[in-house]
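Final report, closing paragraph on structural work. Over the funding period we assembled a curated collection of sequence-structure pairs, and we close with a single example.
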Amino acid sequence: MIREQHLKRELSTGSICLDIYPVGNDVLAVIQGGDKPHIGCAVLSVPRKSLSGDGTVSCTSSVINITGHKDEQICRFISESIAAELKVNVVCSGGFHIDNISEEGIREVIGAVRDITGEISIK
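Its predicted structure, as stored:
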């Protein structure tokens, strides 16, 4: 089971926040940050046995993107990570935007998303 959580990471370009909400046995995750937080994507991940046959848990995910938004990588990572770990359905939605962000800035955001997802307390 997971409890409600609010995680935040400071970046050189602002901050990124991840909010986790239990919804029955499932999870809703909301990611937002940068100078223009928004909903750019929604990912629904459903856990299943990996197709590799090694007994690990993987996910099947459905994605809805708003045209022109590139938030899928962030939302998919969070949604699939939580779903595989907890073996529950997960929806992750939100968005991160910085005008004219550099390649280095993008790498920083992706690293922060990986780090903050690893900080989720599972109890």
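Strands lie at 5-11, 14-23, 26-34, 41-49, 57-65, 90-97. The CA atoms of residues 11 and 109 lie 7 Å apart. We thank the funder for supporting this effort.
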